[in-house]
Amino acid sequence: MTRLFAYELAKLLKNRRLRRLLGVLLVLDLLLLCWQNLLRPSALPAGAYRRIGDELAPLSMQQKGLFLDEKYTELTALQNIYLLFRDEALGTPAAVLRARRGQLAETLGRYLEVYESGEYLAYTSSLSKELRFISEIRDEYQTAASYPDFLEEIARQANALSGISIFQNSGYSAESLQKTAKAFAPLIGVSIDYLPQKGVLAATDLSLSSVVLLLCVFCLSGASLSEEKENGLLSLICSTRAGRGKTALAKLAAFFVCQTALTVLFCLIHFFFCAALYGFGDLGRSVQSLPALLACPLPVSVFGYLLLFVTFQCAAAFVLGLCALTASLFFRGFYSGYLTVLAALGVSFALYGGVSATGRWGLFKYANLAGILDTVPLLGNYLHVSLFNRPVTRLASVSVFAVMLSLALIFLFWFRFQKGGFAPPARRKSLRQRLSFPARPGRGFGGLYRHESYKLLVQNGFAVLLLLFAALQLPACFSAPSALLPEEQYYRGYMLQWQGPYTHDTYTQMLEANEAFAPLRQLRAQYFSHRITQEDYTSILQNYYFLQQKQAAFQRVQAQAVSVMQRPGAQLVYETGYRSLFDFYDKKDLSDALALGLFCTAAFGAALCLDKRTGMDLLIGATALGREKTVRCKFRVLAAASLAPALLSCLPRLVQTGEAYGLPGLLCPACSLPFFRGVPAVVPLWCMVLFWFFLRWAAVFGMGCIGMYLSYRTGRTVLGLCASAACWILPVLLSQAGLSWAKWFSVYPLLHLPIFTGGSFVYACLLAVFFAGGAYLSYSALCTRYGR
Hints:
This protein is mostly helical. It is 70% helix and 1% strand. It has 39 helices and 2 strands. The protein has a two-stranded antiparallel sheet. Helix 2 (16-39) runs parallel beside helix 13 (245-277) and helix 11 (210-230) packs parallel to helix 14 (302-330). 33% of the residues are buried. Residues 165-169 and 425-445 have low confidence and may be disordered.
């Protein structure tokens, strides 16, 4: 058993690809940590927390309160002085300024010299940031200082409720309050020593890093089991004398050691980074000194809390890894096991976010994978859930569930190993292989193209993935269009009436339409000439609501007419539909980039792994047609297949826009729209729609070309999918998480047509050339390397 454990552990540690991949993920986590704490525009300077922590450390709690109150009073006064001087510079009426100076007379006499000296900035670079920072620290101090009142309120509520006869010794609420009071009773008299909590909270905040940790778990589980299962080595191992039960336990032990070490390293990176950046303060002070953990019932120090956090994080990662290992052992294919784990995570997070904590199903809110992974609220908040109408603490329920789930998964893993029968997926006859049809020479589309089409559509699961993608995209086509606002309805009517070249007749019709707004002009003239009061003007104006909306729409038409006269060849076109179709306001293309990235990663990330793993590429390279013709055929099939996902990504928006606004004027010049002003006048709008679709097809085709090369280069399903995901999915996820510039290094610019016609035209063209070059180099490299 010891030898087996040492062998399994050495196999994981000596896996060069695994080490590289985990190294990349750890570097990515460090970059996310740097961005989250250093690069956010709204973040306060990190050094400010360390400096004020050093100043507060030698003071008592009372002295800290006086110090922060004095700072807050001074900065508030300086802010008022700044606002007064700013209003003077902006030309505020003298009467208002005199009244303000009278109110701030005492403040000016006390703090004017300090304001003029400019020596009041001790932590940040501006007065507004300084006041915001001190307000944050002062609020934290007041929360921590109120801890005795917090304990007293818990005891008071328990005593008050137990004194009511109908609640005595009965009922969920009474028992919950009694248990809460009993849990916090040992904390009466705990010493509170406030210091800034930013460092500890930032170190334990894994909101952005949780995806990286999940990828680490999947990589370890894949290296531990999936690779052996794919290449058939697992069947050979199970045929040996100690190849089943003992091997299963050895694999679990090796996985536990590696996963624990990786999670500890993961947490230590966070701890040392945040300690160097913000400082942790005295680790021996009680954890209740942190305002965010005021409701923690554990009588531990900050250091003890960090140890518990690491312990629970390791346990959560191990449970998640057990799920991945067991699922990959029970399912034949690679996708099925990991998709099952992701589905379980999705259900868990749905329960975690949708079930009420105080309802009868509150136990299921936390007794799931999401409840195990959310460590900070688990340790930092005291909460009861209902178990057969009896209050049970959240920590106890989650801990028991985690232990029971771990034991069940270990038993299932061991039992499946004992059963044996692990044939590699490539040798097993699946349903799609049973449904395959033999080649019929001489009939239609056959030969090499037919074979490559079958491999892409059936063997690589492109057809199934396309059906799933269609199931996600097509429901949006049948959703009811949103109702147009009155102003938009009037604007649409005007533009459909005057659509086309701007002529003298159009100008005459506009003058006639402008006469309908004479009552509004007369009303404003009466108001500005003081013939009616403000109240009368407002009251009468309410009766002209729809006329106001119509006037606003007419003014939009006039502004568009002026713009059209300044652009030769332009015409009047109803532009709202085109703004929605081409996502002029940048609300939809980023999500489309994520959807297409997920599809291309799953469809092409492992497209050529089977050829390389089984040696089929060597056989193809020795045939008469050779590698170059085979690769050319693969890419032609890929180009034809890329039309379907590109069309599915365009179809919902086309249908929604057509139903809500319509797309009139498709034969008009594209330069009629302001955001296409740089397009030649000979290009009609329907060409821009085709160009929009072509960009999407090119994006899918390019991602497929590069993904096929990466899959062949890596030769492993896990590595191929991870490489494709890093290229197409990760930048979009970073952008949606707040790192907005990351989207410019993804496929998003190819999907966002306004970039090609706006100020970023040069960048968009360079990116398109770079992307096309990458696809061509992938094709050339496969022509050279395929079968060698």
